[in-house]
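Supplementary Data S3. Sequence and structure tokens for construct A.
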Amino acid sequence: MKKYVALLRGINVGGQKKVPMALLKEVLTDAGLKAVQTYIQSGNVIFESLENDKEKLQDVIYDAIKTHFGFEVPNIVFTPNHLKTIFDACPFPEEQKENSYFMILFKAPGVELVKSVETLSYPNETFVITKKAIYFYCSVGYGKAKLNNNFFERKLKVTATARNYKTMLKLLSLSTDN
């Protein structure tokens, strides 16, 4: 069995796409995933599977949620090592890193779109765009940021899902414990 981390996009936010974690765990177990764990309400799932194809696993999760809950939820699946690589690549100094957000990209954004976004600047906000993630730091807090996950999705024409430093750290801990 191989361990995986799935990040779901846009559930339990603002009263939309409500997915109780206990029920999600049951639905995904019924869909064939093993040792399913969830972490907080924002759509973090750790599980095991014999399947090696992450896209197939994404389809299993997508189909199970759509069938049971009746709405579409994009998701992306990583091995713990792949998630750790993204986490470790954060370019910010430790103090900023501990207060930063990781916007995980479902696909690499186009080079021209990245160039146009990189020219933008807002006070107190710093970001770095890579093929796999946008590393984002706002000194006044994410809730007050002009640049957020929805902004980057629109400008880069990609799907993304954001997690803060503490959530990333916890997901790595949960997925690497044996």
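Construct B, processed identically:
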Amino acid sequence: METHQTATKSVLQFRDAGKRFCTPARPDLWAVRDLSLDCPAGKITCIVGPSGCGKTTLLRLAAGLDDATTGQVVLNGATVSGPSQGVGLVSQEGGLLPWMSVEQNVALGLSIAGRSRADRRARAARALGRVHLPPEVSKSFPHELSGGMRRRAALARVLCSEAPVLLMDEPFGGLDEHTRRKLQTQLVELWTEDRPTILFITHSIEEAVMLADRVVVMGFATKTAEIEIDLTHPRDPLSPDSLDCQLKIRELLQQTRQPQSL
């Protein structure tokens, strides 16, 4: 179950990456420090760790929304220096614009790229269908949708962009268990069809085992362990193998302690 080196090409790499914030209260706060990680092409890498350990900061570095203070973040062989068209981001809130219809939200990237209205509508409809949202939802506004439907719409938006790398920051957090499980299943189905490289942040150990090819355990500001999940999809969270993986991750998280300097 422990991870080992793989010959699979890494699309996204963190090379001794660090991010330091300077505030009046904490002039030398490292959210991420000396972290090295490879995200293999076409695989799902999940990161778990306690609140405040730097998971979201790590994702922002990958998305080019923050610059690394030290080290490098590398995407397809080039240092990340800003947002890339080859990367799709799903935030915790989903990021749907309230004044736009669902269709307009899903096709936003295509609109910015100057695609024709007919092309935008066709590709948005296809993406919404892939996440099992009915056609009539396209004319609705985000506030008219349930939480689960908003998360599906946010997922449809990154599918519409056809980005080969997806960064997902607790995209199913706060949902009821039934809806969360359905969205996990749909994500695996979509990943099986397209094989994007996914970096997925979650607080849920069960969710990480349900989705990931590999789980990265973070302590405060750095990586502490990696575990390979060699289970076929679809996965049963209550199977002996799944429970064994969950137990191992839980034990590693329990060993995590916050440094006194933070």
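The longest strand covers residues 10-21. Residues 177-194 form the longest helix (18 residues).
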